[in-house]
Input
Amino acid sequence: MTTDPASTPVSTRPLAPKGRWWRRVVIGVLFLANLGVGLVLFAVQSGQSAFNENVTQNTDVTPELDARPTENTEPITFLVIGSDTREGLESLQNFGESNGARGDVIMLIKLNPANGSAQILSLPRDLLVDIPGHGTDRINAAYSFGGAPLMVRTVRAATGLPIHHYVEIDFVGFQALVNEIGGVHLDFPYPARDLNSGLDVEAGNQLLDGAQALAFARSRRYEELQGDSWVNIDADDFGRTRRQQRLILAILSELKTPSSLTEAGSIVASFAQHLTVDSALAESSLVQLAFQMRGISSQTMETATLPGYITDFEGKSVVRMSHPEADRMIVAFAEGKLLDLSSQEVLRLEVLNGNGVEGAAGRMSDLLEEKGFEVASIGEADSYDFETTTIIVRPEALASAQALVDLLGFGTVSTGSLTDGIDAIVIVGLDADRSLQSG
Output
């Protein structure tokens, strides 16, 4: 028995000079590492020296990695770890004490240069696996037992997937990145909080600073104020993983804005010191990848969490893989197929009035039912400031939600937490009311 140690297209332009391609790679890897934040590769004019001086290269993990594909158009898989170290977070007393570091966030990110797409497969940190040389335990224990090398071996053994590169980021780096880009916007249908992580936000579109974004990403006791009561929503390992994936897409959108592009140098300077990568990332073979992946966006990135269920093991709460769902998802990830295994199912919807126009939710409900969707409930959002109709789904159901937007002809998709039995929340904005009235 072990103990829990921590209770789109390919570019045809010539390659950039050596100094410039490194800057492209730097930005991509930084954002890739940010609690799993998807790869953002774009041209920058400064920041190379800051990266070279501050980034840490892990030479021990490099021998454990799989050989990269010989063709530059073949997919490449990164193991991304969010290290659960409290060093430098004295102001965040909510997080408590931690002896040593753990793999608090564990994600596999697959980049496909052939079509400029990316997939993120999150592994619950409490996933029960066999850790080579240490028996059966939660997967994040591998980091404490043997650091990055053992983490790579453990994830590979659990999934059977190749791992070509390793990236690690600590909490301070995540907070610094969010602050450097001026915060990140997220939609909240209700006021939300987590008394443990320190999250405290109002309903509506909110701009989170680094501290609140970190509290959101680390929340395991997420609550929403629905009516007069605080209700636990996705208050478990799976819910926290979905919130982290939601931040991935939101930060990616912020990073693609003109202001972030022009400030890339300062982003690199403040973030690089919190980043650890395998030494093979210094190889010049990443030049072509940087060009090929430069157009990546939230529309070309798919996220999912490995299916599992919460149970007990030797007195500890753990997550066991759900078979055969987990097996199918791993195969889909390996083959570059859609990870949303339920994308063909009819969505069960909750419709909320988010524009304050009387009857807006009812009219939307009627329209959705006419189109074959099941409306489970109708109500009022906690805010009437939604200009645009917002469809909130879990990250793994983005494809289904986008199909709904395409069907309606208006609206936008956001990721967030949902109550059990609900597949999506439709918050009716002013654009919907205008469209329904004109129709």
The chain has three domains: 18-177+241-335, 183-228, 348-438. The chain has 13 helices and 22 strands. Residues 183-228 form one domain.
